[in-house]
Specification:
Layout lengths: L2 H4 L8 H29 L2 H8 L4 H8 L3 H14 L3 E3 L4 E3 L2 H7 L13 H8 L1 H10 L11 H22 L6 H7 L2 E5 L5 H9 L4 E6 L2 H14 L5 E5 L10 E7 L8 H11 E12 L11 H18 L14 H10 L4 E7 L3 E7 L1
Parallel strand pairs: 3-4, 3-6, 4-5, 6-7
Antiparallel strand pairs: 1-2, 7-9, 8-9
């Protein structure tokens, strides 16, 4: 086939298709800008005030938040334009629908998302590191990213775990809840700020929990969270890489949204297999994905692939082996990893719109 036939820059352009694609990219540009507005609204308490006050003018919101009215009014207009708030033109009042408030104003909601925008903020801050990584093939370790990545990631996952972990994910595993109720030993590998560890500890007071993470500041944050939760006597956190985890035998080992980030996921799975009790289990929580690129087309796939470029593959390539599974590895590839690590059983226990919950047995 000739260069003219294959080079998109040389092919004729459909004006209708061009305009549709321009609008698609402009919508993405608007979304990127809107993310900055979301972080401002969250940090300044504007969403909470708007949700609590009901239909309100900009001056009242400015006074309640301690902010300058003109900035607040322009921010409110940006929210109306984005569909994140409503406006009554006749009364000149702004308001939020219950659904909008659940996503933007309620920090305990399972779909509270403002802190998630800290993750792309970190990605923007680190784009020069990514340029160098693309050209050199070197990785970018997790700890080398902008600090807002760590708090943003922890907050993004926390509410989803709170909504699902105890109520549906653990019960989907064979016989695990009964062990936790009697008293089990649990390792949470790649625990980050410890939210998943603490949710389990609070639900199952007869069990013991150890969280492991190779990122020191996250381990310190997890220890502080444990003190605040009042479960310090049953939970501890240690700074260790996945292949250095110790202290078995464990009845349950958990990997929450982290195995695909590891340089040697098969090695990590093989290592924890040696630490499992004979009837122990691994719970693997991974981003929802199909087994092929064409199965992952859409907003969720776009979000996860983008994060995978900047964060997941980048960290994996910074470690030994550098498997770089990526955030959209898919169930088939993950099953292959665990077969390679010597496990005899691997199944999908359940799923959510954002996660696969998988169970592996020795």
């Amino acid at each position: 086939m000739s260069t003219t036939e294959t080079d998109a820059l040389q092919q004729p352009v459909s004006e209708d298709d061009l305009q549709r694609f321009v609008q698609q990219v402009v919508a993405d540009l608007a979304a990127a800008s809107s993310g900055v507005m979301v972080t401002l609204g969250h940090r300044l308490g504007l969403y909470r005030i708007l949700a609590e006050l009901g239909p309100t003018d900009s001056a009242t919101i400015a006074q309640a938040s301690g902010c300058h009215e003109r900035y607040v009014r322009e921010w409110l207009n940006s929210q109306v334009a984005a569909g994140y708030a409503s406006y009554d033109a006749a009364a000149r009042r702004y308001s939020m629908r219950p659904e909008q408030a659940m996503v933007l104003a309620d920090p305990d909601s399972p779909v509270f998302l403002p802190m998630a925008f800290e993750v792309p903020a970190a990605m923007w801050n680190d784009r020069e590191k990514a340029v160098d990584a693309f050209r050199s093939g070197r990785g970018v370790p997790w700890g080398d990213h902008h600090p807002c990545l760590f708090s943003g990631t922890a907050a993004f996952f926390r509410n989803g775990y709170a909504a699902n972990l105890v109520s549906s994910w653990l019960p989907a595993l064979d016989g695990v809840v009964a062990k936790l109720e009697r008293g089990a030993r649990v390792a949470d590998v790649g625990c980050g700020y410890g939210h998943s560890t603490l949710l389990m500890a609070e639900a199952y007071p007869q069990s013991q929990f150890i969280g492991f993470d190779n990122h020191g500041p996250s381990v310190e944050a997890a220890r502080a969270n444990a003190r605040d939760a009042g479960v310090g006597e049953r939970v501890r956190f240690e700074q260790q890489a996945a292949k250095a985890v110790s202290g078995g035998p464990y009845d349950l080992v958990c990997f929450f949204d982290c195995l695909h980030d590891m340089g040697d996921p098969a090695g990590a799975a093989r290592h924890v297999r040696e630490l499992l009790a004979p009837d122990g289990a691994v719970m693997l929580v991974e981003p929802l994905a199909g087994n092929a690129v064409e199965e992952n087309v859409g907003p969720v796939g776009s979000l996860y692939y983008s994060a995978s470029v900047m964060l997941c593959c980048a960290h994996s390539l910074s470690e030994e082996v550098g498997t770089a599974l990526g955030a959209q590895a898919g169930e088939a590839r993950l099953a292959e990893i665990f077969r390679e690590a010597g496990y005899s059983r691997f199944r999908r226990a359940t799923e959510t719109p954002f996660n696969l919950i998988l169970e592996a047995r020795p």
